[in-house]
Amino acid sequence: MGNIRMLGTSATEPQYKCLRRWLTKVVSFILIVDDVNDLYGSLEELRHFTNAFDRWDFREIEQLPGCMKICFQAPYLITCQIADEIETENGCKLVLPHLQKVEGRYICRPHAH
């Protein structure tokens, strides 16, 4: 989490407004998912929840309670939007798999980094 916070505070120039917006969304989801991990779900549900983020796989959330499904679906959709914006603005391709890999590490395991 410290690395993400540091990146956001060092990108203060106007040309980094998209980066700050994207980081705000990602950090917000990290905090929400961390709270869900702490407050909801059995150990088995949390395994599926974590696996869903590790693999970005909707099949992992089929057996989860509604609040946990939403906490997977919202970051998934936002990550797709961020990847699309980066690809459109910069002409890059294949951004989504890289974002998913990085976010998967932080979203369900924010304290491990």
From TrEMBL:
One of its GO terms (molecular function) is terpene synthase activity. This is Squalene/phytoene synthase. SUPFAM superfamilies: Terpenoid synthases. Residues 11-101 form the Terpene synthase metal-binding domain. InterPro entries: Isoprenoid_synthase_dom_sf (IPR008949), Terpene_synthase-like (IPR050148), Terpene_synthase_metal-bd (IPR005630). The keyword Lipid metabolism does not apply. It comes from the Eukaryota. Keywords: Metal-binding. The keyword Transferase does not apply. Transmembrane segments: none annotated. GO terms for biological process: terpenoid biosynthetic process.
